[in-house]
Amino acid sequence: MNAMKLLRRVLLTAALLLLTALMIGAAEKYNDLLYLFYPSFCREVLGYLATWAAKFDYVLWQRLCWVAAALIVVTLVITILRRDNFLHWFFGWTVVVALFLCIYTAAWGLNRQGPDISSDMRLETSSDYTSSQLQAAAEYYLDEATKAAREVTRDKDSLCQTADFPALANAAASGFTSMTKTCFVFGGSTEPAKPLEWSGLLRKFGVRGMMVPFTGEACVNTKLLPAATPFEISKQLARRMSIARDTDANFAAILACTASDDATYRYSGYFMAFSACYEALAKVNPSKAAELAGKISGGLRADLIANGTLDGNSSNYLSCRINTGKDASSGTEANLLVAWHVHLTTPVQEEEEASTTGAETVPPPEEATHPADLKLAA
User: Could you tell me how many helices (H) and strands (E) the chain has, helices first?
Assistant: First the structure.
């Protein structure tokens, strides 16, 4: 009897893991069909969950983790005291873990097998941009970051300071509202992010933030560098909007920040955009990167140093470095940012070329005040 009970738990665990693998395989094979509705379904479900979880002042999933940990310990103690078969206890919990993994995959995880954000935005990208194109993008983002740096408040060390976390989290919505004019993928719940509990402990493990599909909560570490905190808040909201790949979520967060009505968010977006392009440029053309670094001064330089982008991290904050290119076919964040810069400047370049050749051209779109005004795809 006990052997049959153990066998059922083992088989159930295996079945759930197999189902998870089959879902991932089907998502890769029937990609075009699935992603006609799956991201929208996820956005709706997570939006309802986020609204429900917002009724709690604390991070609900962290409290549920405490409950789960307590149940694991209690059931283990009972198993030991009763001298029950340890394997029954172990495989009982593997069933639970496999079930949650299966639900996670079905409810959100399959977004990782979907199209890149560049495809959704119809943004032409390349994995082999020239050094001059990367330099031009870095210079553009540096100019914008320098302008935005003048609009934020700073502490005695010239580091950017933000509003208290609830007020800062509430300000994230405006950037996504603006970006929905650019692309549908920026639509979804903008329920404010919550501050992670035990941020000091999680800082030691490099945890900057996360989005938990089981509760729809977007959570951010409060020990993060203030200049990067609005970016991280936007990144976790982007994940809730089914932008699952890390590279894509970083890019989406930058665009949402730069399109925001809030000065701190705009600065954070351009700050992170320049950081990504600068670090990429430093790898392929160190001399040009050094020239750019020499142009940086004031509060922007202080934030870049504190983040470890320039001269190493000398602050007590958790730094925020991107440009990983992890799990994205369109390349690194720098590739996407160069593509975005090319997109922004193409109408201007075409107009200049037409004026020199005398060719008749289609009038360019009205001048945009920020990237969100330049529509790509509805």
Answer: 16, 3
Query: Six-digit token pair at 306?
Result: 């504190």
N residues, the chain: 378
On whether the CB atoms of residues 115 and 32 are closer than 8 A, the answer is no
- Other CB atoms closer than 10 Å to residue 53's CB: what's the count? 21
CA 342/CA 336 separation, integer angstroms: 10
Q: Quick count: other Cβ atoms within 10 Å of Cβ 2?
A: 10
Closest among 274, 377, 259 to 334, alpha carbons compared? 274
Q: How far apart are CA 58 and CA 65, in angstroms?
A: 13
pLDDT (tens digit, 9 = 90+) per residue, 174-198?
A: 999 999 987 888 999 999 999 999 9
Residue 244 DSSP SS3: coil
Q: Quote the strand ranges of the chain, DSSP E.
A: 194-195, 209-212, 217-220
Q: Between the CA of residue 135 and those of 67, 139, 167, 220, what are the distances in Å?
A: 51, 6, 36, 31
Per-residue pLDDT at 125 = 85
Per-domain residue ranges for the chain?
2-113, 117-340
